[in-house]
Known about the structure:
Blueprint: H1 10-20, E1 39-43, E2 47-53, E3 62-67, E4 70-85, E5 88-103, E6 114-118, E7 121-127
Antiparallel strand pairs: 1-2, 2-7, 3-4, 4-5, 6-7
Amino acid sequence: MTIVKCCSTDKDRFTDREVFFPSVFPGLFNDYGRVVPAVNISETKNEFTVELAAPGIGKDLFRIGVEDGILSISAEVENKTGEDREGYSRREFSSGSFRRTFRLPDTVDSEKISASCENGILSVRLPRKEEAKEKAAREIRVQ
Length: 143
């Protein structure tokens, strides 16, 4: 008889499951199985842009806010489907949520933040304050 260690901790159970049922979307889920949307952050001389991949989430479901220099992006989705036919009924429910937070630099003008959603990508524009923008070089004449 052989004794085999199996699933002694939650982390081991997660790892063992991944061995037998590899994830179709590696990196999309955290250790608790929750969906964490991918984020890209870009910077230009006039603004920062946060792009969040959230296919299937309508623009009305996003909640975006700024408080104490923290940008918060969240959404909660519930899907209910069902079908009634002679002899059986089918009901399926699924739900999911996420929340991402980002500390904003002091150079961001939080009053002018805007967001748009197109083709499953949420784009949040974070314009810089006027005094933080790079000024064009100029020559000063000596009088």
